[in-house]
From TrEMBL:
Membrane topology: Multi-pass membrane protein
PANTHER family on file: RESISTANCE PROTEIN MDTM, PUTATIVE-RELATED-RELATED
Record domain Major facilitator superfamily (MFS) profile: where: 1-369
Organism: Paenibacillus odorifer
Subcellular location: Cell membrane
Matches recorded under InterPro entries: MFS, MFS_dom, MFS_trans_sf, MFS_Transporters, Tet-R_TetA/multi-R_MdtG-like
Membrane-spanning segments: 20-37, 58-77, 83-107, 119-137, 143-162, 189-211, 226-244, 256-272, 347-365
One matching Pfam family: MFS_1
Protein name: MFS transporter
Keyword Transcription: no
Keywords for the protein's UniProt record, in alphabetical order: Cell membrane, Membrane, Transmembrane, Transmembrane helix, Transport
Amino acid sequence: MFWFSSYIYVPVLSPYVEHLGASYFMVGMVLGIYGLMQILFRIPIGIGSDYLNRRRPFIYLGLIASGVSCFLFMWGAQPGWALAARAVSGIAASAWVVYSVMFAGYFPKEEAGKAMGMLQFTTVIAQLTSMMISGYMVEHWGWNAPFLIGGIVAIAALILALRLPEQKQEKRQNAIQIKELAGVVKEPLLVKVSLLSVLAHCVLFITMFGYTPNQALNIGASKESLGWLTLAFMIPHAIATLYGSRLFGGLLGDRGKLMLGFAGSALFTLLIPSMPTLAALCLTQVGNGFMQGLIFPLLLSKSVSEIDPFKRATAMGFYQAVYAIGMSAGPFVAGWMSSVYGLTGGFWLGGIAAVLATILSWVWMKDTKQKQLKET
C-alpha cells in the first residue's frame, strides 16, 4: 500500500507535467527532485531510527508524506505545484530505509539476500498493480484520478500501520553514539554497492520511471496503452527479483550476475529510441525489466551484509541516500540532454551509465571476493 500510493501516478507523471506546459528541462526537475529529497532525508532517518531504537514512527512519517504528496498534485495544476508534490513524495520514499531494516530483522543474517528478494518482490507487485491502472484512470476520469486514489490508499495504510508492533534491537551495555553510527559510511563494500546503485537508479529513472512513457506517446501510443508498457517491464522484473539468484547465482556468482544485469540493461536502453511501434518498445522493457531485476535485490542485500544489526538502519540510510543521487541526477541531466538532442539523448545517457556500471562491477566485485578469500 505504501508503494501503491507512491507509484500509481508514475507512468503518467512526465506526460502530466508536460501537459501542464512544462519544458523537458522542467520535467527533469520534477522527476529529479524525488531523488534529491531522498539524498537529504534518508541518512537522518536511518540514524534517527537507530539512535532512538524505534522503527514505527518513521513508517507513519512515510505514509503521511505519501498521502500529502498525492493531494498536493491535485491542489494546483501548475508545474510548480507538481515540483512541490514530488518533493514531498521523496520524503515519503526516504522512510523505506526503516521498512527495509525492519523486514530484514525478521530473518537470520545469512538469509538477508532472500529477505531483500521477497521485499523487492512486494515492491514490484505494488508498482505493477498501481502503474497498470494509472493510464486507464487518466484516459477515463482525468489527470487527478490517480492522485486521489493514491491519497486514499495512503490513509488506509496509515490506519493499518497503527497496529504495527514496535521492533527494537536488544539493549546494548553502552548507549550507541552518533559518531559510532557515522563510521558506518567507511565500510568499503557499502560504498561500492552504493555507487553501483547510483548508476542502476540513473538507468531506471531515465527509462521506465522517466522518459519511456513520453517515447511511447511520441510514437503514437495512447495514455491508456501505457499500462502495457508497465506490464512488459514489471512482470520480468518481478520474476528476476524472486528467481534471479536461483537461476544465475550459482552459475555466475555475484559479480557475473551484476555484469549480466548492467550489460543487458545498457543494450535494451540504447534500443529504446529506435523502436518504431509500442509492441517493439515493450520488448525493450521486457529485457530491461528482467536485467534490472537481477541487480537491485543483490545490491540491497550487500549493502548491509557486513554491518552490525544495531547499525543497519544507518547503513541502509547511507545506501539509499547515495543511490538517490542517481534518481535525481539521472532524469535531471537526461531532461537537459532531451531538450538539446531530443529524447534519444536521454536514453543514450542511460545506456552509458549502465556500461560504466558493468565495468565497475568487474573491478569492484572481484576485489571483494579476493578479500573474502584472504579472510577465510
